[in-house]
Amino acid sequence: MAQLTAxxxxxxxxxxxxxxxxxxxxxxxxxxGHSDEAWAHAEAAFRAAASLRPRRYPVPVRLRxxxxxxxxxxxxxxxxxxxRELLDNTAxxxxxxxxxxxxxxxxxxxxxxxxxxxSPGGYGGxxxxxxxGLDAIELYQLNIENVxxxxxSLHREIRRTVLHEVGHHFGMDHGELDEAGL
Length: 182
What we know:
The protein has 182 residues and is mostly helical.
């Protein structure tokens, strides 16, 4: 934490540097006791990036976890009934950030927005959620909020991420999802 805080004092004057610094400080916050200091420095770093290049790096919009959960649930319910019936054992799980294991051991990007996770007997996801037979869409709230500068874009991004992960459930790869605008 001290090294990251010292980096903010150096005032890098590079938008991408500030953005990455904000992300790193969020990881410190999430996995080192939810320090108010780490959170304040992370938010300041995101604001610094936005001040240098606002079209590329918006000031993130933050929602209370209950509001984020509600929007994610609405996105899942917006899927047509015929498809939603095929997802009856699917839950949406909202986490602050991806687990360190997913990033370190499985090589997933730390700024991942969402992930389809299949039950032990299912197909699609890279990890089982235990023996409950439940598939899940994991959404990473901070990463999604970090790319959205207003509530409208945040709602759109949550919905897009849910639909993207549902697409994985139905066997679509990233190329097919890109073609579909997801």
